[in-house]
Specification:
It contains six helices and 15 strands. It is α/β, with parallel strands linked by helices. The strands form five sheets. A three-stranded mixed sheet has the order 2-1-15, sandwiched between helices. Strand 9 and strand 10 form a beta hairpin. Bound molecules: citrulline. Citrulline binds next to helix 4.
Length: 259
């Protein structure tokens, strides 16, 4: 398995913010926490490739938003925030050896943080960052590989995956205040603790979940599921509205067909 991550920009203090007030980010501390996060991936058996960043790409560490990777292909997103569009070329080049690439084209916008893949179901958040055209383009691409692409309205948070992520094949961790639970028929739902609205973002790896230390009450709920959970502190990146899924693009490593 492979994970693409991206260096924290020295200008992360100028990141996009939608729902949080700006507070100072301690960049050395953020980098230390990010390294520990990468260590969680390595410990789980993933090969981590950390892409370079720069002062012109404040949000580059949140690499998840730039691509959606499934077994059959990769879709290069077109971020809803104009300031993030320059992030795409390096991520596309990193994915090119492994997957056939498709690109979301104007006027569509799509952030990878709005796409939750569960088997051959793709749940796509209709959010401030992902528009109807973005969902329609993703439906054409992933539909051609047999994926059922379903739009889910998102309100009150940044992305779909701020509100819901997978913790097992049939279980979702969810904050029902930000997404309609009816969109997840057929799944077992685990609710975040009411005191921890930001707690629905968990990163599911092959044999464990990476989860923020910031949400101990919801973590206790996950512990009852019998899933292995590795807790890590991403407190500095949380100030930039980042969470555990945002900081990597995860995929099964294989060179693309015909190469
Ligand atoms: C942004 O607003 O784009 C960044 N400051 C945070 C992106 C977090 N990404 C994610 O949840 N997938």
């Amino acid at each position: 398995m492979r994970a693409i991550t991206r260096e924290i920009s020295p200008s992360i203090g100028r990141c996009e913010l939608a729902h949080l007030a700006r507070t100072p980010i301690d960049v050395p501390r953020a980098r230390m926490q990010h390294e520990r996060y990468e260590r969680c991936l390595v410990d789980a058996g993933y090969t981590v490739e950390r892409l370079r960043s720069g002062p012109d790409l404040p949000d580059a560490v949140f690499v998840e938003d730039i691509a959606v990777v499934v077994d059959e292909c990769a879709v290069i997103a077109r971020p809803g925030a104009v300031s993030r569009r320059a992030e795409t070329p390096a991520v596309a080049e990193a994915l090119r050896p492994y997957r056939m690439l498709h690109e979301i084209a104007p006027p569509a916008t799509l952030d990878g943080g709005d796409v939750l893949i569960v088997g051959h179901l793709a749940l796509v958040g209709r959010s401030a960052r992902t528009n109807d055209a973005g969902i329609a383009q993703l439906r054409i691409v992933l539909g051609s590989y047999g994926y059922d692409v379903r739009a889910v309205p998102v309100g009150g948070c940044l992305h779909l995956k701020s509100a819901v992520t997978t913790v097992s094949d049939d279980t979702l961790l969810v904050n029902r205040a930000w997404v309609p639970a009816g969109a997840f028929a057929g799944f077992t739902l685990v609710d975040v603790d009411p005191d921890e609205p930001y707690a629905a973002n968990a990163l599911r790896l092959v044999d464990r979940i990476v989860y923020p230390t910031a949400f101990p009450k919801t973590l206790a709920r996950l512990d009852t599921l019998g899933v292995r959970v590795e807790a890590t502190d991403l407190g500095e990146l949380a100030k930039a509205e980042g969470a555990v899924t945002c900081c990597s693009v995860i995929f099964a490593e294989r060179v693309k067909d015909g190469e």
